[in-house]
Amino acid sequence: MKNILFFGDSLTAGYGLPASQAYPSLIKEKLQQEGFTNYNVVNAGLSGDTTASGVHRLDKWLHQEVAIFVLALGANDGLRGIPTRETTINLQEMLDKAKRTWPDVKIILSGMEIPDIVPGRYAAEFRVLFRELAIQNNVSFVPFLLEGVAGMRHLNLPDGVHPNAEGQKLLAKHTWAILKELL
């Protein structure tokens, strides 16, 4: 069995939904449907996680064999206005740990964005940091995990931030488009 580790925050955990409706579970179903029965999906999503806490939390997963590492952290950094340089350093540290621990690992970095309504350069800097990390590290890239979901009331829970079951299907679709190339 080859493990696919989804390492993220509430978006990965499926906040407010049964685990079976979170996008990693939907990816697991898709793998089965497509005949990739030799893959196991591990959902290491933790609500509220930032890249800073993720750097340390990743250590507890390093003992596992991982074939594909999906790094989907950063949304909470953006919501909290954490400096983009700090987010970049933390994401890079997690990418480095993954490459050191699993030399043959295939990596997907899931990009995050914050709304352009946020004043100043922060939104633009935040958006670009994921793209730059993907290029510098030569890893696969989901440009914006919440594409078509963010800001769409009918695809989110009443809090307007976390995807509902229908929204999670789009997160799965965006991720599958990249993941299928790595299988």
Protein described:
By secondary structure, the chain is of the alpha/beta class. It has a single domain, classed as Rossmann fold. It is 42% helix and 15% strand. The protein is built from seven helices and five strands; from the N terminus they run βααβαβααβαβα. The protein has helices spanning 10-13, 23-33, 51-57, 75-80, 84-101, 122-137, 165-179; strands spanning 2-8, 39-45, 68-72, 106-110, 140-142. It has a five-stranded parallel β-sheet, sandwiched between helices. α6 links the parallel β4 and β5. α3 packs parallel to α5 (84-101). The longest helix has 18 residues, at 84-101. The relative contact order is 0.17. The mean pLDDT is 96. Residues 6-170 form the SGNH hydrolase-type esterase domain. InterPro entries: Ester_Hydrolysis_Enzymes (IPR051532), Lipase_GDSL_AS (IPR008265), SGNH_hydro (IPR013830), SGNH_hydro_sf (IPR036514). This is Arylesterase.
Topology:
Elements: E1 2-8, H1 10-13, H2 23-33, E2 39-45, H3 51-57, E3 68-72, H4 75-80, H5 84-101, E4 106-110, H6 122-137, E5 140-142, H7 165-179
Parallel strand pairs: 1-2, 1-3, 3-4, 4-5
